[in-house]
Structure formats: structure tokens, C-alpha cells
Amino acid sequence: MNVTKILQSVKNEELPISEAAKQLSGFSELGFAKVDTQRKARNGYPEVIYGEGKTVEQIVAITEDLLTEGKAILSTRVSAEKAVVLEQKFPDGIYHKDARCFVLNPSSKLTDGYIAIVTAGTSDIGVAEEAAITAETFGNSVKRIYDVGVAGIHRLFANLDDIKNASVVIVIAGMEGALVSVVGGLVDKPVIAVPTSVGYGTNLDGITALFSMLNSCSSGVSVVNIDNGFGAAYNASIINKIREGE
């Protein structure tokens, strides 16, 4: 934040005092939310709206506030019912049903290096799409490599070149989560593991896969929370942009 520039803009009557106050405070006060207007300056990406647990009216209000910043706007965990309202209110937005994400102003410039998003099974695609849409919204090229789990490991080897050539790899798996250890042992790139809640009883809603990934003997593997495709993609995006020299 350039304080001098903001004050000069007010002096020149180029910026309303109310907007200057918002920029100087670093957040917008909406009563039910304090929207972080300096997130991109601090972290490289603007604030993301977590849609689950918020009313559609709250999501609309936060989105309207973020629109004044002119940055990419990503809302995650948005139900189909809420999406109907958002699409009516923001006709330029796109709802990605599998990802449960609503996106406005996605980055139009994509990186040369790509993020490979790899799933063990088709049942993991919902989490994978959350990761893919997050990464693409923030300007990353993405390659989707789905349903290559260890139960048919020849499918993984048939796609191994695409995985090895990625800048960073996100591996998403439920059940026992074994795929991440296999991939981690085959590539020389950062691997971000996402355990999913997919699996039978002793999967324990993803805890078994989480523990398995945390105990992986493959070096270079980091692990995010259960079903957290967004968190994996956020970290992968930072890594990919560093590799691009941005």
C-alpha cells in the first residue's frame, strides 16, 4: 500500500475519501464480515470467499465489495442453490458445478509451467476440480490426470511423462492414500497430497488416508487437510509462480 499515492489521489479529487479510508484501513467493514482488501498485496492473491456456512446474501455482499478491487474473485464450497442466485446477480461469473466454485474475473494470463492434478479414482474428482479451478483462477496452467490409482498402476505409468514434466504435482486420493507415496517416489518436483473422505468404513472419512500420507516415506511430499483441494492449489500456485520467476 502506497500511503502517499492514496493521499495524493484524494488531494487531486481522483479518489473519494470513503475509498481512501477503506484502502488505508486495509479492510471493508460489512458488519457481518471484514473484507481483507490488502490480501493480494501481502500474500500475492486476493481474499477467497468460503461459501459454506454463509448465506447467499452474505456471499453477494462480499463479492460486490471485492469487485471494486478489480481482481479475480473465487468463492469455494458454493451449493447449486446459491449458485443460481449468484449467476443472476453476476452474469459474467461462472459456476463450476463439480468444483462447487463460483468465479469472477479469472486471470487471463496462464503460466507456461503447469500444475499436474492427479487423482486415484473418479470419486476424488470433486476435490480435484476444486483444486483445478482454484489454480486456473489464479493464472496457472493445469493438466488433469484422473483415475490412475494403485489398483491399476499401469494407468499411472501411461501418464507418467505428463506428471514428471509438471512444475508441481497435486495428488488426491482416498481409501488408504497410497498413490501419493508412489508418485512421490517417481518425480523430482514438489508433491502436495490431498487425502479425501472417499472410502469404506475404516477410511474414517479421510483420516486413514491423511495418516498414510503424513507417514509417507517418499521425500518431497507435503500434506494438506482432508478434502482441501483449495489449500493444495493455493500452495501449488505459489510454487508454480516462483518457478516462473514472477
UniProtKB/TrEMBL annotation:
Source domain of life: Bacteria
Any Pfam family matching the protein: AIRC
GO terms for biological process, alphabetical: 'de novo' IMP biosynthetic process
InterPro entries: P2CMN_synthase_LarB (IPR039476), PurE_dom (IPR000031)
Gene3D superfamilies: 3.40.50.1970
All copies of domain PurE, residue ranges: 113-245
GO molecular function, one term: hydrolase activity
Protein name: NCAIR mutase (PurE)-related protein
